[in-house]
TrEMBL record:
Protein source organism: Gymnodraco acuticeps (Antarctic dragonfish)
GO biological process: mitochondrial L-ornithine transmembrane transport
Pfam family of the protein (one): Mito_carr
Membrane topology type: Multi-pass membrane protein
This protein's name: Mitochondrial basic amino acids transporter
GO CC terms in record: mitochondrial inner membrane
């Protein structure tokens, strides 16, 4: 049930956060010579006006499709790594999160490639007359037929560089915050504290790796329209800095941070509610507490309770 709740919670997070992600990608890859958007809110307004509300949800099929596998990998690897490490400490949370982040890149990279390509398709048009991809799966199949496995895994190195420390920081920040806030089982403010910790951990995670995400988006968007601009990661960094300065690494950051908190809040709230109602009033954790199981329960008898 924990896995099912995590998947549904993740889906809720995608629904809440995908419009912000679309804005982030548009801002990250737009031309500096002929920019379409002046900033985050102008981008929101332009997409809704030109492409309707559904324009903000372009490419959502890809993260929804990969959600189950990513949740299975992340929480499975993180839990098993914590058991192998043996002690629930902040550093071990970082190491377990980093391991989970690295392994899930196998699913995450192709998923985000399809998402990025679909988010850029038909920019500024209500009905795209040049609709190259029907959906996420069709996008990946077409890329594979044209470029092979290398094309499907475009941006894998930058995804790995982003996800490994990113997930480590996320689990570390969440652990430190839940310990500091005192998320005790009998605390009636358990859920608000968990939501706050999750949201802030998400923000910390994005801030720690955001420049890498900008380069990843540019590499994955490269080749749209048949024009390739970057020969490597270093070339992408060099060209981006030369043309736009070091502030290029903050493109889309506002929408990303606006997205980070509600996405994590939606995810944790959904997980907590599902677990509460599925376990029933008599068996469920007090005040929607995410009850620990197995090894976590033993650890919490020895130390201050931690979230995951």
């Amino acid at each position: 049930m924990d896995f099912v709740a995590g998947c549904i919670g993740g889906a809720a997070g995608v629904l809440v956060g995908h419009p912000f992600d679309t804005v982030k990608v548009r801002l990250q890859v737009q031309s500096v010579d002929k920019p379409l958007y002046r900033g985050t809110f102008h981008c929101f307004q332009s997409i809704i006006r030109q492409e309707t509300l559904f324009g903000l949800y372009k490419g959502i099929g890809s993260p929804m499709m990969g959600l189950t596998f990513i949740n299975a990998i992340v929480f499975g690897v993180q839990g098993n790594t914590m058991r192998l490490l043996g002690h629930d400490t902040p550093m071990n949370q970082f190491l377990a999160g980093a391991a989970a982040g690295a392994i899930q890149c196998v699913i995450c990279c192709p998923m985000e490639l399809a998402k990025t390509r679909l988010q850029l398709q038909g920019t500024g048009e209500k009905k795209s007359s040049r609709k190259l991809y029907k959906n996420s799966l069709d996008c990946l199949v077409r890329i594979y037929n044209r470029e092979g496995l290398r094309g499907v895994n475009r941006g894998m190195v930058t995804t790995l560089i982003r996800e490994t420390p990113g997930f480590g920081v996320y689990f570390l920040a969440y652990d430190v915050l839940t310990r500091g806030l005192g998320c005790e089982p009998d605390d009636r403010f358990m859920i608000p504290k968990l939501l706050f910790a999750g949201g802030m951990a998400g923000i910390a995670s994005w801030l720690s790796t955001y420049p890498v995400d900008v380069i990843k988006s540019r590499l994955q968007a490269d080749g749209v329209g048949g024009v390739y601009r970057y020969s490597s990661i270093a070339d992408c960094v060099r060209q981006s800095v030369r043309r736009e300065g070091y502030m290029v690494f903050t493109r889309g950051l506002t929408s990303t941070l606006l997205r980070a908190f509600p996405v994590n809040a939606a995810t944790f709230a959904t997980v907590a509610l599902i677990l509460m109602y599925s376990r029933g009033e008599g068996q469920g954790p007090k005040d929607c507490e995410l009850a620990p199981t197995g090894h976590q329960a033993q650890l919490q008898q020895q130390a201050h309770p931690s979230s995951l």
